[in-house]
Write a structure and sequence with these properties.
The structure is a single chain. The protein is 38% helix and 22% strand. By secondary structure, it is α+β, with helices and mostly antiparallel strands. The protein has 2 domains: 131 residues, 3-Layer(aba) Sandwich (Creatine Amidinohydrolase, Chain A, domain 1); 213 residues, Creatinase/methionine aminopeptidase superfamily (Creatine Amidinohydrolase), CATH 3.90.230.10. It has a 6-stranded mixed beta sheet with strand order 4-3-2-1-5-6, with helices on both faces. A 3-stranded antiparallel beta sheet has the order 7-10-11. β10 and β11 form a beta hairpin. The structure holds zinc ion (2 copies). The site of one zinc ion (ZN) has 4 residues, from loops. The site of one zinc ion has 4 residues, from loops.
C-alpha cells in the first residue's frame, strides 16, 4: 500500500505547481487502479492538492473500504451531486479530466454536473499520469517479475508439449491453462501461437493449423499478477531447421541482444529502435521487420515509452520495456524474440530468464 500512497502524493505535487488546474477527475479503470491499487469496472477518483476521494457503488464498496488505504472511500448515491459537492468542499476551481480516456459525451455530462467548477480537457493531466506510470516503483517491478516467472514456467512446460500433429490452438490453450493454474490472475492478452507459414504473421491468431516437422512456432504470451502484466515471445523449431531458418533466427537474436546491450538511462527510444533495425537491415532483411522494437509494460500491456522510430521519449531509470525485433518472410516463416527489461542506473536488467538460443524440439 505504501506504493500507491506515493502515486497519489506525486500527482498532488504536480497539481500544486501546474497553474492550469487544481483538481483531477480520474475516470478510466486503468488509472483508477494505478492510483488506488483497487480494480473496479466503475468508480470516480477525485484528487486535489491535499485530498483524494474514491466514489464507488454498492457492488464494490465493502471491498474498496477494506483494500484502499490511500484515500477516502465514499458510497456512490447520486454521482453528479456528489462530484460537485466533494470538489466544492475541496475548494478547487478547475478540474482536469483524462483527455485520452474519456468520451466526449462523458466530458459534457460531468462538466454540467460540476458547474460552476470548470471541468477542462487538459492533455497535461494525461502527461502527468503517463510520466508517473512509465517509471515503475519497486513494488510494481516485483509484480511484473512475478507475472514473468509464471510465463517462463509455462514456456518450460510447453517445450515438452509441442510436437508434430498438435494444433496452434492446442498450444495456445496449454500455455493459457498452465499460466492460469499456476498463479496468473488473467492472461496479458490473447496468446499467440502460430506455426509454419503462419509464423510470418506477427499477430496471427492460433487456429486448427497443425504443427509439422520443420516448422517454426512463435509464441507470444504473458500473465497478469495483481494487475501487472508480463510479455514474452519465443520462436522454437520442430524436428529440423533449414540454413535460411537458422540465418533468420540468429539475425533476430543478434538484433535483440544488441538492443539489450545498449538499453540505459538517457538513450533515446528512437535510437534503441534503430539498433535493432540496423542489425536486421545489414543482414538484408530490413524490409521484413515490420513493427516497432518494443513498448512499456505495466498496468496495461502496451504503455509508454515506445521503442519506435516515431518516439520522442528518452529512457529513464525505472522504465520497463520490451525488446522484440522480428523478421517475417511472407509465405515462408517468421521469427520474433521478446524479453522485458528494467532500465537501471548502469544499463538494464533483463527480467526474462528463458533461454534464447535456437531450440529444436
Ligand atoms: Zn509480446
Ligand atoms: Zn510486446
Amino acid at each position: 500500500m505504501g506504493t500507491v500512497f506515493m502515486m497519489i502524493k506525486k500527482l498532488q505535487e504536480a497539481l500544486k505547481t501546474n497553474g492550469r488546474f487544481d483538481g483531477a477527475l480520474i475516470l478510466s479503470p486503468e488509472n483508477r487502479f494505478y492510483f488506488t491499487g483497487f480494480a473496479s469496472s466503475d468508480g470516480f477518483l477525485l484528487i486535489s492538492a491535499d485530498r483524494a476521494v474514491f466514489i464507488t457503488d454498492g457492488r464494490y464498496i465493502e471491498a474498496a473500504q477494506n483494500q484502499i488505504q490511500n484515500c477516502e472511500v465514499v458510497l456512490q448515491q447520486s454521482a453528479g451531486k456528489q462530484l460537485a459537492e466533494i470538489f466544492a468542499d475541496m475548494g478547487v476551481s478547475a478540474v482536469a479530466a483524462e483527455t485520452e480516456r474519456i468520451s466526449v459525451a462523458d466530458f459534457a455530462k460531468y462538466g454540467d454536473f460540476l458547474k460552476p467548477i470548470r471541468l477542462i480537457p487538459d492533455p497535461l493531466l494525461d502527461e502527468m499520469i503517463c510520466t508517473l506510470r512509465t517509471v515503475k516503483e519497486p513494488q510494481e517491478i516485483e509484480k511484473i517479475k512475478a507475472a514473468q516467472r509464471i510465463a517462463e514456467a509455462a514456456f518450460d512446460h510447453i517445450l515438452g508439449f509441442i510436437a508434430p500433429g498438435k494444433t496452434e490452438k492446442e498450444i495456445a490453450l496449454e500455455l493459457d491453462f498452465f499460466m492460469l493454474s499456476h498463479g496468473a490472475d488473467a492472461l496479458s492478452f490473447e496468446t499467440i501461437a502460430v506455426s509454419g507459414q503462419k509464423s510470418s504473421m506477427p499477430h496471427g491468431v492460433p487456429d486448427r493449423n497443425i504443427v509439422q516437422y520443420g516448422d517454426f512456432i512463435t509464441m507470444d504470451f504473458g500473465a497478469v499478477v495483481d494487475g501487472y502484466h508480463s510479455d514474452m515471445t519465443r520462436t522454437v523449431a520442430v524436428g529440423a531447421v533449414s540454413a535460411q531458418q537458422k540465418e533468420v533466427y540468429n539475425t533476430v537474436l543478434r538484433a535483440q541482444e544488441a538492443v539489450l546491450a545498449a538499453l540505459r538511462p538517457g538513450l533515446s527510444c528512437k535510437a534503441a529502435d534503430q539498433i535493432a533495425r540496423d542489425v536486421i537491415t545489414e543482414a538484408g532483411f530490413g524490409a521484413y521487420f515490420t513493427h516497432s522494437t518494443g513498448h512499456g509494460v505495466g498496468v496495461e500491456i502496451h504503455e509508454f515509452p515506445r521503442l519506435s522510430v516515431l518516439s520522442a521519449d528518452t529512457l529513464e531509470i525505472g522504465n520497463v520495456v520490451t525488446d522484440e525485433p522480428g523478421i517475417y518472410l511472407p509465405g515462408a516463416f517468421g521469427v520474433r524474440i521478446e524479453d522485458m527489461a528494467l532500465i537501471t542506473p548502469n544499463g538494464c536488467e533483463n527480467l526474462t530468464q528463458s533461454p534464447k538460443e535456437l531450440i529444436i524440439l
